[in-house]
Amino acid sequence: MNRRNLFFLFFLVIFAATVALAAAEGFVGDKVCLECHDDVMENYEKNVHYRIQDFELKGLKKGCESCHGPGAAHAEEGDAAKIFTFKSASAEAASAACLKCHRTMRASDWHLSDHAPDEVACSKCHPIHKGKSVIKSDPYLCMACHKDVRVQAMYPSHHPLREGKMKCSSCHQHHGSLVNNLKTNERLNDLCFSCHADKRGPFVFEHAPVTEDCLSCHNPHGTVANNLLKQNEPFLCLQCHESHFHAGRLGLTDARTLPSTQWTSQNPHGTEGWRRAFLTKCTQCHFKIHGTDNPSQTTSGRGKGMIR
To answer: 162-185: string of b/e by CB count within 10 Å (b at 16+)?
Structure first.
């Protein structure tokens, strides 16, 4: 017997032993599954799980049984309880089946996500047998559950989700991350600055809320106020800054002349003139609200007025 025949005989023995071992463990192969579940194959052939077909256990490609486990008892009795199904399994068990292979890259932090403790299984968003990897496209898939965010995205001021220029996954890592399901391993602000780099700084004169947390003033999912602000001006600013010192003064009713220019200004609003002028939008004067390198000529603010 030559070497080629000897090698072929050795291969047949190993293959037969592997098949026998698989049969002893209760594996029956895809053909047996498809005798009843032929409707699944119509879409499953387009799925990445079918195309790669390299789920190997002890040298034998298991196909359907790579995820569903041995199917001999189920095929013999037709009892759904005799095989692992994602519909009947708990969210933790269903996700664990996926994580046997999907342990790397984006799914490596799955247990850090909000989905895992909330019992949202992988199969909730990723249908296993369908031709596509997700039921709907982002952001509509996310908004099917996160209805409060969907409402906020419809507010007048919003990130361009519904315009198709952004997705939820532009900011969020839905498979889990170290920082509240966000695509950053550091602070929330660093994620915001990845797009809004002009607000990053550092500045000589900084605004404390900007350096601490963008969410102090902004709601990123959408607001009624402009620029994603949680409230309109000046009400948002007055939560930290007491009413502008000018606003409490009664206005002068007579005309005033500036000594340096001899320019005379009238006050058509009477005693309410100060209130009308200084209870308007703060950023009409303090427009460098995120920080500036130029000192402002304000005595009380010590140059930190952020007006230039």
So the answer is: eeeebbbebbbbbbbbeeebbebe
Total domain count, the chain: 1
8 Å CB contact between 295 and 303: yes
- Quickly count: other Cβ atoms within 10 Å of residue 207's Cβ: 20
CB within 8 A of 147, min separation 6: which ones? none
Determine the 3-state secondary structure of 98 from DSSP.
Answer: helix
Nearest to 102 by CA among 55, 46, 139, 171: 55
Which of the four pLDDT bands, split at 50, 70 and 90, describes residue 11? Answer: very low
pLDDT score of 22: 46
Assigned domain for 76 exists: yes
Tracing tokens 């040298």 back to the chain, one arrives at: 59
List the domain range (segments joined by +) for residue 89.
37-135
Q: Average pLDDT, stretch 89-112?
A: 83
Please indicate, yes or no, if residue 87 is contained in any of the structural domains: yes
Q: Is 245 exposed, middle or buried (0-12, 13-18, 19+ CB in 10 A)?
A: exposed
The alpha carbon of residue 114 and the mean position of all alpha carbons in its chain are separated, in whole angstroms, by: 11
Q: The tokens of 232 are what?
A: 């309109």
Question: Which percentage of the chain shows pLDDT scores above 90?
Answer: 22
In a domain, 281, yes or no: no
Q: What is the Cα–Cα distance from 10 to 179, expressed in whole angstroms? A: 54
* Alpha-carbon gap, residue 215 to 32, rounded angstroms: 56
Say which residue, 215 or 277, is predicted with more confidence.
215
Instruction: Give the separation between CA 107 and CA 91, rounded to whole angstroms.
Output: 15
Q: What value, to the nearest 5°, has the Cα angle with vertex 179 and ends 178 and 180?
A: 115
Residue 123: DSSP 8-state: G
pLDDT at residue 68, as a whole number: 87
Domain assignment present for residue 160? The answer is: no
